[in-house]
Structures
1.
Amino acid sequence: MSTTALYNDQGGAEAAVEAGQESTATSSGSGSAFGLFSTDFKKNEDLKEMLESNKESLKLEAMKRVVGLIAKGKNASELFPAVVKNVANKNIELKKLVYVYLVRYAEEQQDLALLSISTFQRALKDPNQFIRASALRVLSSIRVPIIVPIMMLAIKESAADMSPYVRKTSAHAIQKLYSLDPDQKEHLIEVIEKLLKDKSTLVAGSVVMSFEEVCPDRIDLIHKNYRKLCNLLVDVEEWGQVVIISMLTRYARTQFVSPWKEGSVFDENNEKAFYDSDSVEKEDETEAKTYIMDPDHRLLLRNTKPLLQSRNTAVVMSVAQLYWHLAPKHEVTIVTKSLVRLLRSHREVQYIVLQNIATMSIQRKGMFEPYMKSFYVRSTDATHIKTLKLEILTNLANEANISTILREFQTYVKSQDKAFAAATIQAIGRCATNISEVTDTCLNGLVLLLSNRDETVVAESVVVIKKLLQTQPTQHCEIIKHMAKLFDNISVPMARASILWLMGEYCERVPKIAPDVLRKMAKTFTVEEDIVKLQIVNLAAKLYLTNSKQTKLLTQYILNLGKYDQNYDIRDRTRFIRQLIVPSEKGGALNKYARRILLAPKPAPVLQSAFKDRDRYQLGTLSHSLNIKATGYQELSDWPAVAPDQSVRNVEVIEPVKEWAPLVGKAKKSKSADKFYSDDEEEKEEEGSDSSGNEESSSSSSSSSSSEESGSESEEESSESEKTSTDSGKSSSGSEKSSRESESGQKMKKKTKKVPQKKSKPAAAHSESDENGNGPVANASSSSAESSSGSETDSEDDSDSDSPTVPKKKSVVKSKPKVEGKSKKEVSLLDLDDFSPAATTNAPKSAVLSSSLMSDLEGLSLSNVSPDIQVTTPSFGPVTTYELLHHMTGKGLSAKYHFPRQPCLYQPSMVAVQVVLTNGSDHSLEEIHIGDRNPASLNIHCFNTIERLEPEASVMVSMGVDFSDSTQAANFQLCTKEDQFSVSIQPAVGELFMPSTMTEEDFCKEQGKLLGMNETSETITMATANTSSQSISKHVLSAANVGVVSSSQSNVHRFAGRTVSSGALVLVSLETKESSYALLTVNTEKSVMASMLLRDLKQALAQA
Amino acid sequence: MTIKVNSQLKPAAEMIHSLFLVNQSGDIFLEKHWKSVISRTVCDYFFEAKEKAVQPENVPPVLQTPHHYLITIYRDKLFFLSVVQTEISPLFVIEFLHRVADTFQDYFGECSESIIKDNVVTVYELLEEMLDNGFPLATESNVLKEMIRPPTILRSVVNTLTGSSNVGDTLPTGQLSNIPWRRAGVKYTNNEAYFDVIEEIDAIVDKSGTTVFAEIQGVIEASVKLTGMPDLTLSFMNPRLLDDMSFHPCVRFKRWEAERVLSFIPPDGNFTLMTYHVTSQNLVALPVYVKQNISFFETGSCGRLDITIGPKQTMGKTVEGLMVTVYMPKSVLSVNLTASQGNYTYDLTSKLLVWDIGKLNPQKLPNLRGGLTMQSGAPRPEENPALDINLKIQQLAISGVKVSRLDMYGEKYKPFKGVKYLTKAGKFQVRT
């Protein structure tokens, strides 16, 4: 319209416009505003003229500049009279800008603002819904108390508007009016009540929002709308979903009884101790007997679950918190994967999600343990992200994964981000106190860090060591001595003070060194920092009490220095100490207690997570994030002991379909595919499981789906169970019309599931739980509606465990080839196996391994030199599980084992074995331990005796076995309190290796040394499917725990490893020839192992 | 009814109260209030935190002040600072702020201080429509575009001549329908639907070359320009590879759960159809290996660097766009290197060494080596710098995910269809 030049030349403004100078509207609007109008008051005069002119283009231009001023936070209020005149303008853009202005300044110019009201009142009757809605928006945004009655009227009218968009706007207006005049509350609640009944997805979110603001305590308004809200949820816009979910979370906590059964305390502990997700599943079984979930409670859980797949992170988070606060414990795990997914999102999202995971991971380690690696820190993460990840890793640390985590921590300690390095040291300290196995390792590592060049690192280490020594008051005088030696090089006051305190506290353990340190300190006393001085006085006093012969004079000297110190704290302390320890004529009363006062045993500091008590706040809230109760935070109530009347949620009346519903209602009958639009609508409805608008769809879909009772819910359930059954690969193709049939479907499913149980051991536990889960179905068959809800519960269970936790997948992968080998008939079972839950019992806890603690230690020393051939972690590989003890022979106790391919925690020469013990009997087993072994010389690191194993519970324990590089079975006895069972572990030769990394060059060099007797080779035939290099690696790695050596020739594959016990090098090379032949060569001095390995590899590669 | 003048307002619960846009140097260049005005002095608390954090990335996203809470995102060198007064889900605000930034990006092609200042009126109109009383009203891009048309040169000229405006006067059709993401009456002469399957490899490789962590994140970006109201079905050869996914709201979730096909009525234009995660159990094949040796000498304040990159598992495709970024320690003053291929730059202020290699030639592996000059007297750095790897492989989805077919229902014409695959390095870090 005009240009920058135009404004420079005020006089010629109009002329210039007339001339129709070319320029873009936007650039003129803002460019000029920013260029010129920021301060110049005179220009506003010009604006006034423009606004009052009768040229629309000029007015628009002026308004754009005014908005520019508002955006910059400049005051444009003196233009109010000129602007308000334009409120009735026809130009929609101008009108909107005037609205912006009005909303901004009406509060300041109330009288003038009233001039515009009539315009809005008129617009509220406009036939265009858009105009009506914006009029209401502005009218309600003008914060002029005098128009409250007008607003009230407008809101009431709009709440009954034809257009859902206008009704939505009125829901927003409710909140605005309420904040303007809280006295209107009662009237507004009436409107809210009315709008809550609205069936439009557009309105739902907004009205719940105003409910939350105006009357969050009026839970009774929700009862009748509860089911509708649950059912509409999927189709509500994403922001509304968040608000509704959080409201329903609160609602559910007041209306349903706790799904966490009383006995859960034990299970919690159990789980905490073993992180065995299976024990959770077990919990469910016992639970099913005693606790039956309210169908409405289940409805909420079921309908929110799909939202975990939302692209909106706030929605995912709110579903996660809903599950956390409402779902039975074992179902919460389904949110894990989605939360971990959010970590890919923006930094700020990561921050919030990590905070919530940190809180969750304290209570439920098992939930996140399989995803531990997602919390590994990258050097490019922001500091607060790093610290949170560290927090979570520390929370997840347990006996099985500690070595992996410590290895990771070694890298972090070296970080250039010193705040983070310091946090890592504290984390190591926490791991050390929590996991007694590694306390010494950590302590030694920390001691090595004392020689680090960075002061912060050293200081932090000293402080952490001090705490550790306090919690471990055993003989640690070596460490104290070491610290004393380092003392001269440490200059951080906190660290010096900590060392001095340690000296004093344990002065009797280092009787020679402590006085010497004191002597040194006496020399430097005057130049020390205050906290150090205090500790010097402290040390002097303690030494005086324990070793007065040597230190009497020194102490007196120090006390004298302290007496004249500049700091009065130190003078005070000195005076106090002197009175306390030096015997004098008067005031000697305390003297005899001096020793007991100063050398009293002190409670060890507790090292715990900063997120320990965050769970008092609802997850995902601002309060949780800040760890402070935010204004307006509403506590989640505790579960009621007895459920309130359930019937309040029943909706009997079937209202006629409202006028604006045609969008939804129309397309029901026409199914033809070419009519896409209607087709879509129908899809929409079915898929949304929209039995929602309870009335409508039950009538509509009766043609297609079910002959069940018209209760909206039961119908939905049947469609749901139908869904899951197709899902599980049975493709019963929606033939289930009656509930009876669907029940039989359940049975079939059960049957099919039993088969894989035999095939793949992992499935065993799960199928049991499945049977049990089906229990309610049978019991409740009296009414079809109920039974279907029961089956629903069951299918829900399925889909929960469906969310494949990492370990489970692995077992599935493993079991697959076996099944395939059996028969082609069971192909469908395979599918099922993939989708349906497999038990997570024998989940290998950490599939990716770490080197032994020895190397951890080595790493902590921060050496940059690495030996050229290292034993390293193997790449990802599947894990096979073997039976150790069948539950038939074991009188209910069953045991399975697998090789986690992880360096053994206990001794480097041992092979790590993880055993899963499951109690399949109906009574608890006690004192499970390892008894006699055969041969007696067999070196086994036993697991700690398990005091008690509840029925259906299972435990994972790790043990180490030294096989001495032979495949001879390790025989030993597995004992319970009453029985003894002989069992044996027979390792495949491939499990007796540790992978090692080397360059191709080194490989060839080493190979050259292992020729002749040490070389075994054979030409083998490979299955054609295996000829790609990837599948060769896969097969070799699955057969033997070796590492891949990168190869420059595409037809030669090399692998290297070392035997666990003797550390002999094992080199495997595979040269592929034409078609599917290949030359397989094994070089090692252990020739027996070589031939066995050759045989195994040959077999592995021949398999398809 | 009694008319009561109530000047003392109760601190009302509301959602997003105000928004301030702040540039990197700490100037507030735009403010918008959805309720009564909050003085911009509230930002002082934020500036304090910003000062303390040094790096803009390190500013905590949630801050508390005596009367307000500040929730901030940092994006494209701008801070979007929102003020809330009461309890709210912080992710709700964060997600919304990112949506605002996305909208700016979508409208103006970039999201920067100057472009926002240039389009301040449009920005204001957008913000006005996106939030009502602090609660999101319209965030769907095609709904917004019907109400406020994005600025184009042509349209401004037309508007100048005809006096029409950029603001629509009817309610966007999407606002009311069950499929708010698509507007009615779309017409194209060439009907086409293109899908890009893009996979990113996230990995951490430790200094011995072992993969500490590796996983694949995939995303399907779609560009659909189809007339009318098409209903598409996209199926995969191997849907079971996909482990965890999130969908555009248009995807029918039940259908996916039951049949593992993506069935949807697409939005018009470009959009993200789904993101997925490939199970980490499957061996993730890293396409390249990195051999590096970076060392700093105890004496003489210098160091040496030697990096070689070679192909590992590339499935016979060429690795392109190879780039290595090294975050040098602060004490490295300058570098003197020779690259056997490509160019390198070293930024003195950010201490970033970027080596742009380009295509990876398996016959002649690219190598970068030479000396590093350190600040004299500075202690030897504790930690060797981490390397970030960037690469691209065309026509390959490294996880093996493959689209098997795309069907269209509901419309009669035959659309052009196409699927492209691309593998990229995501957060691919090599520790040294």
2.
Amino acid sequence: MNVQFKKGVLEICVLALASREDRYGYELAVKISEKFELAVGSIYPLLNRLTQEGYFSTYLRESSEGPPRKYYRLTPEGAAYMRHLVLEWHDFTRAVNEIIEEGIR
Amino acid sequence: MGELNRLLTIVPEHQRAEWLYDYELHFRMAAENGIPEEQAAAELGDPRLIAKELLLGYRVHQAEDNSTVVSVSRAVFATVGLGFFNLVFVLGPFIAVLGVLIALWAVSGALLLVAAACIWEGYRGEMFSLPQGFSLAAVSCGLGLLSGAGTLSLSRGFFSMTLKYLRFNTRLVRGGRA
């Protein structure tokens, strides 16, 4: 898939995945790369930035195997930000689809 | 992993540990899923680039909490590290405006010095009397304080604009949402 597409939507994917339940970094990377191929390295700086901006809080939780995992939880500001992004996304994709349909009809 | 740690030594220990934990976990999870270490490392990308990105976010954040010439300059230099584009479009204007600000500070300082000199001249010299010296001193002192206050608010404004621009610029360079 086009790289330019993916860069823009990674943020919205991460926020949306974390809105239903708290996630850890690797889980997010795996979930997203199931749907489309992804530069895994870009996910951690993104999580870091969103945390610094107050959209995520983090905590450690023991796991049955291996070391404690670092979970990311969406803060109320993060949830509001996600809803804002999703609305924008819907408007944007609808507009693009309309243009495409007009163009290739 | 070692390289990333080494590149980030300027960052306080607890912050660094928190960043690196994500990457450590990534390697462990990858190992559990049967992905060899080399492949996991390749997936994550160049440690130098990761370090630069992390550092930039950190510097900008730090400078926003406490805007001084030093912290803002550090943020600017962290941005410059991300590419040539930034060398031209970030560092150039930054140094130019910084130069103007320094000149304005010098003007304010000079006016205050003039005030002191006027008093001294009125007291000891022949050029003008003591009352004349004092009134000239009052005028130049007033001008000095005024321009000092103006420069201070200009500097503050300039720093906060710089930081806003750096944030915007990083997203642009990374190709994220601008």
